[in-house]
Design goal:
By secondary structure, this protein is mostly helical. The chain contains 13 helices and no strands. α9 packs antiparallel against α10. The radius of gyration is 33 Å and the shape is elongated. The termini are far apart.
Length: 275
């Protein structure tokens, strides 16, 4: 009887010991959960500072997966995308950003998400060869920033990038047009040159484009159109190298045609050459 009583008391003590341990454990776990999101985020930042992007990605992903309701959860997604970008994992970065933008269209980090997405396309432009698809994606992405976030801190740089991309696309079109000229296909080259004048009016290749357009028109016997192109070139870019070359291209320009052409600027060029 005494042994039973003793065993019973031991069981009671053991039960309360387990209960206290369990409560104590829960208390520690809860405290850890509160601190963990902040500590994990700080750890991810430290890995970023050390350029250890893989570990940074792991930390930020860990935060988002284990603390989805944390105030740092969305920020950790953006930091994951940034770390992926820095680690040159561009396709994964794009996927991450597209998912973030879709799920958080009006989030405080949405402007940066759009900017980083545009940069993913932008940094690949130099490697695209003659394929303009990446340039167009980057161009549209930067334009979207100016439309949706005109006062964003990324708007100014977006404008600079847009100008660069437009010059890149215009140069690509010009090179294709010149290729057609060499292959004695002036009609095809004219389409390319007109495309530049319609879509990339403020780019640096406009003077050469006007010169090449005159060349193409002369090749198919459209002298009047060549004269118009030369006149516009001379009016808008009087001291340009391509203007001087154009003079020798059209030796017998009539003064009346030139005078008429000089009244036309690049802004209403389409009504004189495209009609």
């Amino acid at each position: 009887m005494i042994r039973r009583k003793k065993n019973y008391l031991i069981s009671i003590k053991l039960f309360f010991l387990i209960l206290l341990t369990s409560c104590s454990s829960n208390k520690i776990d809860n405290t850890t959960l509160v601190l963990n999101d902040t500590e994990i985020y700080k750890s991810g930042l430290l890995y970023l500072e050390d350029n250890d992007y893989k570990k940074a990605i792991s930390e930020f992903d860990n935060l988002y997966l284990n603390h989805p309701f944390s105030s740092l959860a969305k920020k950790s997604e953006i930091m994951t995308a940034y770390a992926l970008y820095q680690n040159n994992e561009i396709n994964k970065t794009i996927s991450k950003l597209e998912n973030f933008i879709e799920m958080n269209p009006k989030d405080e980090f949405s402007d940066y998400a759009h900017y980083l997405l545009a940069m993913c396309y932008y940094i690949q432009i130099s490697n695209q060869g003659r394929d303009p698809s990446l340039s167009k994606k980057a161009l549209n992405s930067f334009k979207l920033i100016l439309t949706k976030y005109p006062k964003s801190e990324y708007a100014k740089d977006s404008k600079i990038k847009i100008l660069y991309i437009q010059n890149s696309l215009a140069t690509n079109e010009l090179n294709i047009g010149k290729f057609y000229l060499k292959k004695n296909a002036p009609a095809s080259s004219i389409k390319r040159f007109k495309s530049i004048l319609q879509n990339y009016q403020n780019t640096s290749v406009i003077p050469e484009t006007l010169y090449r357009l005159s060349e193409a028109f002369l090749m198919i016997g459209l002298r009047a159109e060549a004269v118009k192109s030369h006149a516009i070139l001379k009016y808008n870019f009087p001291n340009n190298t391509w203007t001087n070359l154009s003079k020798s291209l059209l030796v017998n320009i009539s003064s009346s045609n030139e005078k008429e052409g000089l009244t036309t600027s690049i802004k209403n060029y389409f009504s004189t050459i495209f009609d």
